[in-house]
Specification:
118 residues; 7-stranded mixed sheet; 58% strand
């Protein structure tokens, strides 16, 4: 099992920046990829960015050039640096971990709210 705890959400003005953190614990050696998803009110949860065990990254089009996913193995933490935020980025952001421990599994954090508004 993998446990995830997000932090760093909040209120930011349009054009501003925010960095989300996700600390992971548990069977961390079984993790092969982690990511950030977001879910706006009334919409489905969608992928924002993903990072694999060998540091390969992937971004959805809306985040390319604005968002950066990274990892600090010493702190068991992944980050999502978000720049040039716009009101449409308002959502609950969730950390995700894909792992394999005798079978495939997925863990989710509790989510952290990001509101972009003036």
């Amino acid at each position: 099992q993998v446990q995830l705890v997000e932090s760093g959400g909040g209120l930011v003005q349009p054009g501003g920046s925010l960095t989300l953190s996700c600390e992971y614990s548990g069977s961390i050696s079984t993790i092969y990829a982690m990511g950030w998803f977001r879910q706006a009110a009334g919409q489905q949860r969608v992928l924002v960015a993903r990072i694999t065990r060998n540091d390969s990254t992937r971004y959805e089009d809306f985040g390319k050039g604005r968002f950066t996913i990274s990892r600090d193995n010493a702190k068991n933490t992944i980050y999502l640096q978000m720049n040039s935020l716009q009101p449409e980025d308002t959502a609950v952001y969730y950390c995700n971990a894909d792992y394999f421990d005798r079978e495939f599994g997925v863990s989710w954090g509790q989510g952290t709210q990001v509101i972009v508004s003036s």
